[in-house]
């Protein structure tokens, strides 16, 4: 009797195991496949450039320099390495600090080697893949050529590209890291690959997850004050700070001065029409990127709006947007200023500045 019962029990267990495994087998196989992808593929996918759905097409030619995990990580390492400077004291992230949207929270003007003070405020870095020109005066037309501007500037890194490359080729780890990121490079690190790596890192610095972005995508609501500020912004500010990038990428004289110690765009083009004009900055993360203007004139957003309301100075190249109907500036009441600032704070992208990749 015990033997027959035991045999019957074994038969029942065998049947249960068979049918259970049969039903679970697809799920087990899926788990194994997904587990392998999660370990090997997903991290790489995190380092691929993805255009936000509500953004325009990128300007940067990503087909010629696609972002890879190895290239991005190499660019990040270089971005934080003072090897780029003459005396090993200044890295890119000295003036472009992640926690404040890659702007400079300490210095009105960039501080270079030997504590040399630059001529302009360091702007934040975000959404570089979508920008047509770079620097306050637009003197750089391609992201790849932005780093040499800082490396060879005597007030910033005061180094030569040739010497940077020599130092990297003699370095204990850079040659292997470059070969891993760029298998077709050969045995010698050259300037195109150095610039490609830095561009891969900067191209990935996409700020597109602010409260305003979630509102645009239907994932969040703005408060009554923020909506009022948005309406005022669109009426009074969006002519220059336009589109999802919050810049028309043009150059304007916004009435800081009547005479110009810094000619801005005029120094590049030598056109009388460009004297005292500077690139319209993006307002994304503007709450974090003080001080404001190319010359760090203002410390707060309140001061910025006070300027536009009552501080605009006349000159031959003053922006048309700031001299309507014979009136200088933009009429703004105290309440309107407060509501516009309420809206501007919705452009702060906490996910961006907290992203552990960067």
Provide an overview of this structure.
The protein is an all-alpha fold and 358 residues long. The protein has 3 domains: 2-40; 69-203, Cytochrome c-like domain (Cytochrome Bc1 Complex, Chain D, domain 2), CATH 1.10.760.10; 211-353, Orthogonal Bundle (Cytochrome Bc1 Complex, Chain D, domain 2). It contains 14 helices and 4 strands. The strands form 2 sheets. It has a two-stranded antiparallel ribbon with strand order 1-2. The chain has a two-stranded antiparallel ribbon with strand order 3-4. β3 (323-324) and β4 form a beta hairpin. The protein is globular. It starts with a helix and ends in a 5-residue tail after the last helix.
Write the layout of secondary structure elements.
Layout: H1 2-40, H2 42-45, H3 69-79, H4 92-95, H5 146-151, H6 161-169, H7 174-181, H8 191-203, H9 211-216, H10 224-236, E1 251-252, H11 265-269, E2 278-279, H12 301-311, E3 323-324, E4 327-328, H13 334-344, H14 350-353
Antiparallel strand pairs: 1-2, 3-4
Task: For this entry, give a set of tags.
Cytochrome Bc1 Complex, Chain D, domain 2, two-stranded antiparallel ribbon, globular, 4 strands, mainly alpha, single chain, two-stranded antiparallel sheet, 358 residues
User: Which term fits the overall shape?
Assistant: globular
Helix content: 40-55%
Q: What is the CATH class name of the largest domain?
A: Mainly Alpha
As a whole number of angstroms, the C-alpha radius of gyration is 27 Å
The named CATH superfamily of the largest domain: Cytochrome c-like domain
Strand order of the largest sheet: 1-2
Share of β-strand residues? under 5%
How far apart are the first and last residues' alpha carbons, in Å? 71 Å
């Amino acid at each position: 009797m015990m033997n027959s019962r035991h045999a019957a029990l074994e038969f029942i267990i065998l049947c249960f195991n068979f049918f259970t495994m049969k039903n679970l087998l697809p799920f087990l196989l899926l788990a194994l496949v997904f587990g392998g992808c999660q370990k090997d593929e997903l991290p790489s996918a995190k380092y691929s450039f993805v255009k936000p759905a509500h953004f325009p097409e990128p300007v940067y030619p990503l087909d010629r320099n696609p972002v890879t995990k190895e290239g991005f990580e190499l660019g990040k390492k270089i971005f934080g390495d003072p090897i780029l400077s003459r005396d090993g004291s200044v890295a890119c992230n000295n003036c472009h600090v992640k926690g404040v949207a890659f702007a400079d929270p300490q210095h009105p003007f960039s501080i270079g080697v030997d504590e040399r003070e630059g001529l302009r405020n360091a702007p934040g870095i975000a959404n570089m893949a979508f920008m047509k020109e770079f620097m306050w005066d637009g003197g750089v037309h391609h992201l790849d050529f932005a780093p040499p501007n800082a490396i060879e500037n005597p007030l910033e890194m005061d180094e030569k590209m040739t010497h940077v490359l020599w130092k990297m080729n003699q370095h204990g780890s850079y040659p292997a890291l470059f070969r891993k990121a760029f298998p077709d490079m050969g045995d010698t690190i050259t300037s195109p690959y150095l610039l490609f790596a830095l561009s891969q890192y900067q191209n990935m610095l996409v700020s597109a997850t602010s409260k305003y972005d979630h509102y645009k995508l239907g994932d969040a609501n703005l408060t009554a004050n923020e909506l009022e500020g948005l309406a005022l912004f669109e009426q009074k500010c969006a002519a220059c700070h336009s589109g999802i990038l919050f810049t028309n990428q043009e150059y304007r004289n916004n009435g800081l001065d009547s005479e110009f110690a810094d000619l801005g765009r005029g120094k590049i083009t030598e056109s009388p029409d460009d004297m005292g004009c500077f690139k319209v900055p993006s307002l994304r993360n503007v709450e974090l990127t003080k001080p404001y203007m190319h010359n760090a004139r203002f410390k707060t957003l309140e001061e910025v709006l006070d300027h536009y309301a009552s501080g605009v100075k006349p000159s031959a190249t003053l922006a048309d947007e700031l001299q309507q109907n014979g009136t200088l500036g933009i009429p703004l009441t105290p309440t309107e200023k407060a509501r516009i600032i309420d809206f501007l704070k919705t452009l702060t992208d906490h996910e961006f500045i907290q992203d552990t990749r960067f």
